[in-house]
Structures are given as C-alpha cells and as structure tokens.
Specification:
The complex is a heterodimer of chains A (349) and B (369). Chain A is an alpha+beta fold. Chain A has 15 helices and 8 strands. In chain A, a hairpin with a 2-residue loop joins β5 and β6. In chain A, α4 crosses α15, α5 runs antiparallel to α12 and α12 packs antiparallel against α15. Chain A is elongated and about 100 Å long. Chain A starts with a helix and ends with a helix. In chain B, strands 6-7-8-3-9-10 form a 6-stranded mixed β-sheet, sandwiched between helices. Chain B has a 6-stranded antiparallel β-sheet with strand order 13-12-11-14-20-21. In chain B, strands 15-19-16-17-18 form a 5-stranded antiparallel β-sheet, with no helix packed on it. In chain B, a hairpin with a 3-residue loop joins β12 and β13. In chain B, 23% of the residues lie in helices and 36% in strands. In chain B, α2 crosses α3. Chain B is built from 8 helices and 21 strands. The longest helix of chain B is centred in the middle third of the chain and has 18 residues. Classes of the chains: A alpha+beta (349), B alpha+beta (369). The interface between A and B is medium-sized, with 17 and 24 residues.
C-alpha cells in the first residue's frame, strides 16, 4: 500500500463518513502530541543560546542578519528602518546610545544616521547553529561518554538476556513445588520503585568497591522481573514434546537450553534486547548515584554537566540530547517489527 | 536390541492412580502394541518406559539392568512423538544429527548414519529443508529417522500416525511394518486405533484404566478375548454384545433367553451356568449370516444400511436389542426398514458371564439347535 493510499483510507465506501473525520482528527492529535516535542527538540537544537531565550519563541531557528561594513572590525546587525519621510531603508547599527541608535547605510558607511529605537525592526533569517553540535564535541568529552554508554548498554543487555533466559528456563521447563510462588515473588519486585532501594543497593555496591566503576551501573539491574516474565511466558508456549525429544536425544540440560530453547525464544529475546537497550541507554538516576568521576560518566550523566546551578547551556544540552537519541531511535526503527511479533507471540497462540 | 521387563509398575498423579501394577515382558525384536481407549494409561506407560516420567513404585528393567532411576537421556531408547516434535529451527539433517552429536560421535560417522537413514526413508532430497517445508508424511519419516540413526535399544512410538490423513496412515503403517522387518529392533507402539494394533503387532497389550486386560497375538485376541472389553475393543466394526439370561439347564445344555422371546440352546460350558444367571452373548458382525430359509435365531429391522461395494454393513435393532451390526461380504441390496433374518454362526459365538469374563469361545459352546 502506498503512503498516499494509506493516508486517504476511508471506512467502507468512498464517501467521507464522520467517523473518518473523527479518526483522522484523533490520529492527527496523536501525531502532534507524540511527535511535536521531538520536532521542537530537533529544531531548537539548532538555535543559538540567545535565540532559545527569545520571547515569543519561534519554531524555526532564526537569527538577526548581519553585514560586514568597511571601516568596522565586527559584522554589524541589519535593521529595517522607517525614516521620517515614511520610506523604509535597510541600515546597519553601529551602536546604541540611550533611546537612539547610530546607524549607517552599508552602501555608504561614511555617513552616520541617528534613528529612534522604536523606528527600527531587526531583519531576521533562518540560520542553523551547527556549532551547537561541533562545539561540545570539542569541549565536552563526548567520545568517552559514548564509549561508556555503549559499554554499559551492550554488556548489560547481554548479561540481562543470559540471566533472565536462564531464570525463565528454570521457571517454565521444570515442574517443581513452589514454582509459581517463585514467579510471583519475582513479579512482585516490580512494585518496589528504585528510589526505595537506592540507598541499600548503593551500600552493597560500596561494599564491593564498585563505586565509579561501570560495573556498578551494569550489575544491579541485570536481572529484570519484566524480562523473566516475558521470556517465561514465551517459553511456556514451546511444546513440551520438543524438550522431551531433546532429552531422548541424549541432550544435557545445557544443550537443551542453548540449542533448543534459546533459538526458539529468539522473538522474545529480541523484544527484551530492545527494551534493555532502551532502559540502559536512557538510565539516569542510578548512574548519577554511583558515577561521580567524569571518566566513568555515561552520556546521560555527561549531559547533566551542561546544566549548571546558575546557568544552563540549553543550546548544547539540546544538541547533545538529539545525538543521544539517535542510536536508540535507529535501534527501534530497525527492530520494531520484532517487538510487535514478539509481544503478539507471547500471549495465546 | 533388547528385552524389557516391567515389574509391578504403578504411577500416581496426585490423588489419581493412573497405572495399577503393570507386569509385562517384552522379548528382543518384538513389536508390542499398547492399545486402549483414551485415558487408559497407555501413553503414560510408554513415558514411564522412556524415563520421561518416574514410576511411583515398581521396577523397569532393560537387558537385565534396573533402569527405574536412570534418566531418559541415559536409557538408550528412542521415541517418536505424536506431534513429531521436530526441532523447527533445524534442518532435516540437523534434526537427525542432533542426537548423534550429543552421543559424541565423530562427524564422519554422524554423516554416514544420517545419509544412510535418509536413503532408507527417502529423505535424501530434503536434508537441507526445515520441518515446516515438509508434508505431514515427510515429517513423520524425519521423526522416525531421528530415532533409527541412534540405533537405540528399543523404539518407542507414541501414536505416530494419528496426525496423518487416512490414506497416508495406511501407507505409513506399511512402512513401519517393513521398517521393523528391516531393522528387527524391539518396538513398543502406542495407539488407540485397533486396526494399527492388529496389522503391526506381534503382540498386543490391551489396557483399560491403568490395568492390562489381555496380552496376546492379534488373532488370539480376536478369536479368544478374555473378557467383554477386549472382545468389543478388538475388531471393527465392534462385536455385538447381547444380554441374555439362562432360563433352563437341561443336562449338558443351557437355554438362553434374549431379545424378548428368542431362545438359544447352547452347551453349558464346564457346567458353570445355572438357571437364572445373566450372561452376555458375543457375536461379531461378520458371523451373523443373513438367511432366507431354515432356522432363524433373530429377525431384525434395518435402521441404516451402508453399501461399501466389497461389503455391506447393516445397523439394525430388534425388540430388546438396541443395536446390532451385521456385516455381509459383497453387495446385499436391502434398505432401511427391511427385515433381516439372522443366524449366528455357532462356532464363532462367545459367552461372557455377568462380570464380563469369558466363559466360552466358539465351537465349544455350540451345539445344534
């Protein structure tokens, strides 16, 4: 189906029914709600600090036009000026003195013209401040933070997949008394917010001497109840005959796990991998607690450095936020079909 | 190749006992079929032998070795599952090689065995395919191939043909029979289909509610069933069971009243019958002859006639007899509502007591009347 026909789909026949209008209006609202902030972020990341603080805000990044005039060292800002005789001229401002501005005509820089402030309006143009992206890359240790973030995300996701799938295997393939109690116990930990266990977990991490190590970020969250639950529900749908056929085929439990169950759980593992990558990449509170040296910062913590107590460098913060969003967006774009397939398969077959 | 012995094996699931003390010996190279209605415990018994379930008590002995507590993977048996249980992510080759790899065989040996089994089962062209690209019969052959490459002590088949259509089932039945002839392995085969049991087995074990009803060669079970259950379970269409009562004993003869006013005069088997005893007369549909003249045992009304060309089935009823099936070879053109005059072949009459135990089979019970 082409994009055009997809966007002009109607209910039933060819006439526009009121439900079509309502559906499209509702969907449009959804697009604005979901995509608006992202668009705003993307455009704002190209604004200068001054343009960001301007009121009223503009959607597109704009800045005042400037012109180089012979006889002046720096480029001068351009204004549209209404002259006393009613005509309009484009003049460059040299300086402001009280309620008057001294201006020159860029074509005739020798002659200074005095203009009242309220007679001039700035000339604006669309300008992308790419320096928002290039500057921080030079000043801010972006590559180090990126490396730390990648390490945490990849290693933590691998450990999460391994631990969760082994727990799920035990809780789905084996029949033992207390199996459901164990599962409920694991699920119920979802009810405990991280803020409650922040301090005790921090103490454990300190006791292991892991503060400021990336392992302090990786290990505590490696086993996730959501992951165990997701994988277990999926594994429960695997035919028991397969496991028993493997047992008859002299396979050890490890072989059944690695060669039969894991390959067949791939859709659910993909879903969990995507979730884990998103959680880990965006994780903020816990890394902020255990990482205090800038060598071990992850990107999210590094970004926090732009936010000072007195001044926030919004332009850099926004630009780097866009950069950190890109990898996760790409992961999602390429793997989202697994999410749909995996979640659809987790339930009833 | 191996012998198997079950000694007083029981199995309990929670409060429910599904296997009640089974004793059985399976000889080397025998094709034993467990047959019974669903829920009779035949699959559970197979899983106990396989080691997929632990017996609650009793012993399982293979080749003189007690394997009751040996895990399934170490018993050296191979099983073909009803669902085939092929590994969906592996090719046909990998499916068959998996067990051999787990046995630690060298690669060349694995390849040799798999290609040989594939040739036997006509799967050579499909070795690279995944199971979902195969037809039902091919999947079934892969499942069997997976078992034979392992060269197991005993083959276990759990209703292997029940997912196939009727035509394929007949073809696969022949293949399994010729396979048994070729590899001469010990096979234990579970089915609820008595035709499979009759055609494949060297011995049939009839199970009901976790107990063995009778063990024997197919025709022994057919000709001399120990009880009414085996008599009606083996044979298709099933044996007619007619309730009767002993009305008089006259020397060596017993007069049986049945079907509101009919009488049958038979020899009193071993003098065990007394006047007033309730008995059941068993007569197979093919042993009810349709006669026009002479002595008639029973006249019935046809409720349904099935013309199969080669043979004809009549589903009939008579006063006091709800259903009676008659099988005639050839084509006998009678319609619903017609009356059939029947004569029971005396040498094929079976007599069962009130508890369903056999009193007499065939000629021994028959005298002229």
């Amino acid at each position: 189906m082409s994009l055009r026909s997809a966007l002009t789909l109607r209910r039933g026949g060819h006439r526009l029914h009121w439900t079509d209008v309502a559906s499209y209006a509702y969907l449009a609202l959804g697009v604005v709600l979901m995509f608006g902030p992202v668009l705003w972020l993307g455009l704002s990341s190209f604004k200068t600090q001054a343009a960001l603080l301007e009121f009223p805000p503009s959607l597109l990044p704009t800045s005042q036009k400037q012109v180089s005039v012979p006889g002046f060292d720096t480029p001068l800002p351009l204004f549209s000026v209404t002259m006393d005789d009613g005509s309009t001229r484009v003049l460059a401002q040299v300086r402001r003195v009280g309620l008057q501005a001294q201006m020159v005509d860029p074509a005739d820089p020798g002659k200074t013209i005095r203009v009242a402030l309220d007679k001039r309006t700035p000339l604006r143009e669309t300008a992308f401040a790419f320096s928002n992206y290039t500057e921080p890359l030079r000043q801010f240790d972006f590559l180090l933070y990126l490396k730390n973030s990648l390490f945490v995300t990849i290693v933590a996701t691998l450990i999460t997949l391994l631990i969760n799938s082994m727990a799920a295997y035990a809780l789905s393939i084996y029949q033992f008394p207390g199996r459901n109690v164990a599962m409920v116990g694991i699920i119920s930990t979802l009810m405990i917010p991280i803020t409650i266990i922040l301090v005790p977990v921090y103490l454990v991490i300190t006791w292991f001497g892991l503060v400021n190590s990336l392992w302090a970020v990786i290990l505590p969250g490696a086993a996730t109840p959501t992951g165990v639950f997701l994988l277990r529900q999926y594994m429960l749908t695997l035919p028991r005959d397969l496991i028993e056929a493997a047992r008859m085929d002299k396979a050890s439990e490890w072989q059944i796990y690695a060669r039969i169950v894991l390959p067949l759980t791939l859709p659910a593992l993909a879903v969990l991998a995507i979730f884990s990558v998103m959680w880990r990449w965006n994780e903020f509170l816990w890394p902020l607690a255990v990482l205090s040296k800038s060598q071990s910062y992850t990107l999210q913590i590094g970004l926090n450095a732009f936010q000072g107590e007195l001044q926030t460098q919004w332009n850099y913060l926004l630009a780097m936020t866009v950069v950190t969003m890109l990898p996760i967006t790409l992961v999602f774009v390429f793997l989202q079909r697994f999410i749909v397939a995996g979640i659809a398969n987790t339930g009833v077959k | 190749m191996a012998q198997l012995a079950l000694k007083a094996v029981t199995k309990t699931f929670g409060p429910l006992q599904v296997i009640h003390g089974i004793d059985l010996d399976v000889r080397d190279g025998e094709f034993v079929v467990f047959v019974g209605p669903s829920g009779c415990g035949k699959s559970t018994l197979l899983r106990l032998i396989a080691g997929l379930e632990q017996p609650s008590s009793g012993q399982i002995v293979i080749d003189g070795q007690d394997v009751t507590r040996v895990p399934a993977s170490d018993r050296g048996l191979a099983m073909v599952f009803q669902s085939y249980a092929l590994y969906p992510h592996m090719s046909v080759y990998k499916n068959m090689a998996f067990g051999l790899e787990n046995m630690g065989l060298p690669r060349a040996e694995v390849e040799l065995r798999v290609t040989r089994a594939a040739a036997t089962l006509r799967l050579t062209d499909y070795l690279d395919r995944k199971p979902k690209a195969l037809s039902g019969g091919q999947r079934q052959r892969v499942a069997i191939g997976r078992a034979i490459v392992r060269d197991p002590k005993i083959f276990l088949f759990d209703e292997p043909l029940s997912n196939l259509d009727a035509e394929l089932r007949v073809a696969m039945r022949k293949e399994i029979a010729s396979l048994h002839a070729a590899i001469s392995g010990t096979i234990i085969y579970v089915t609820h289909d008595q035709v499979e049991a009759m055609t494949l087995a060297s011995r049939i074990v009839v199970l009901r509610a976790g107990r063995i009803e009778q063990v024997g060669a197919p025709l022994d079970l057919y000709n001399r069933p120990d009880n009414l259950f085996v008599a009606t379970f083996i044979g298709s269409p099933r044996m007619n069971a007619i309730s009767a009562q002993v009305v008089a004993i006259d020397g060596g003869d017993a007069a049986l009243a049945f079907a509101e006013g009919q009488t049958l005069l038979l020899g009193n088997p071993g003098g065990r019958l007394a006047a007033g005893d309730a008995v059941t007369i068993g007569i197979r549909p093919e042993h009810c002859d349709v006669v026009d003249t002479g002595a008639v045992d029973l006249a019935v009304r046809i409720d349904l006639a099935e013309q199969l060309g080669g043979e004809t089935f009549f589903y009939c009823s008579a006063p006091g007899i709800a259903e009676l099936t008659v099988q005639e070879s050839g084509q006998l053109l009678r319609a619903r509502g017609d009356t059939l005059k029947l004569r029971f072949r005396r040498d094929h009459l079976h007599l069962f007591d009130a508890n369903g135990q056999a009193l007499a089979h065939g000629a021994a019970a028959a005298i002229a009347s």
